[in-house]
Amino acid sequence: MIKKDLSVDFLGVHFENPFLLSSSPVDNCYEMCAKAFDEGWGGVVFKTIGPKHFEVDEVSPRFDELTKEGTPFVGFKNMEQIAEHSLEENLHDLKQLKENYPDKIVVASIMGTNEQDWEELAQLVTEAKADMIEMNLSCPQMTSHEMGSDVGTNPELVKKYCAAVKRGSDLPMMAKMTPNITDMIPAAKASLAGGAEGIATINTVKSISNIDLEKRVALPIVNGKSSISGFSGKAVKPIALRFIQQLRVAAGLEQLPISGIGGIETWQDAAEFILLGATTLQVTTSVMQYGYRIVEDMKNGLMHYMEDQGVDHLSELIGSANKNIVPAEDLDRDYKVYPKIDWDKCIGCGRCYVSCFDGAHQAITWDPKTRRPSVDTSKCVGCHLCNLVCPVGAITTGEKVMKPGRKGNAEDKQVESVRLTHF
Description:
The protein is built from twelve helices and 20 strands. The protein has about 425 residues and is an alpha/beta fold. It has two domains: about 325 residues, TIM Barrel (Alpha-Beta Barrel); about 90 residues, 2-Layer Sandwich (Alpha-Beta Plaits). The strands form six sheets. It has an eight-stranded parallel barrel with strand order 3-4-7-8-9-10-15-16, surrounded by seven helices. The chain has a four-stranded antiparallel sheet with strand order 5-6-14-11. The protein has a two-stranded antiparallel sheet with strand order 1-2.
């Protein structure tokens, strides 16, 4: 069995591995967190603790899923709010977790309605021996506009509340950012100005996942009505990666410590977040589908990936892909690749022909007798839609070519002629 060093240091705290439960229904009490620790998770971000005066009153039902071809949880909608247990119970659980699992990391997620709330909550979770604080500035379904994502879109409030937390505690602190915003950078910089040492992102995306066509109500239906609320799961991963990349290449934020969240289900997902600059990884929706045991699959897969990459320490991979993502105007417009067809794999289904004609550049012709496609390179622009729709992987990236009359880099050994290569 391959063994690699998965440990990471984040905001001065040492994690045995980067995998944490995110603040959510999956770590709502001592028993849940203890089981997760026993299964091998490096830490938990305990479900968000609110002030004593804020009463949590949940709805039923409160979940919905977005599916594709029978696959569950491509996307997941929830109307869940913060922890429904009393402040005293939550603080007791935090303290008990640290006593019984001293080598595991317990992050206290907190959310207040004003500066006093934030400061007091920070002080209380510090006294409960939490290792770190996460400020939840981003929950999209709070019943109070003084809390959640309405705060996270206001840099002035973000800075003020971060400063309040730092008055109440000297623990390392990260601010959890909302994706329900055009540009996350001002809010992130405001949190750092207020005293945050790092960022957690993204929280859930405001959504309506499905509509009941008979009842004409969004799902889930709560006594005949529904509401806009948070969306998570694999479907939000591209949004999460986009925000993380933008943060890591923003002026002054190039080394920003990030705890990545949003659609992490597999070791491949985990690796993508790490390559874009996330040091720790937070997971919820996939745990709700498959249970805590998925952490072993993710750890093992990540170690095999490290072996393939010739890397011994996970920290060597953090942020190594940031430099390869550039503004659209900086992409090489002279670069082009045409599709290559493997006739041994082609089943003659015609998907490539239909998609190219109806959705691209009419560059594929179809022979109904032989049931074989062919590519007209005078029309093909190398978009590779055909590659994506082929159900058997018979179409791949072919030879790299240059636009006629253009000169590429000498090292590329580009050719002037354009042609389609068949196996």
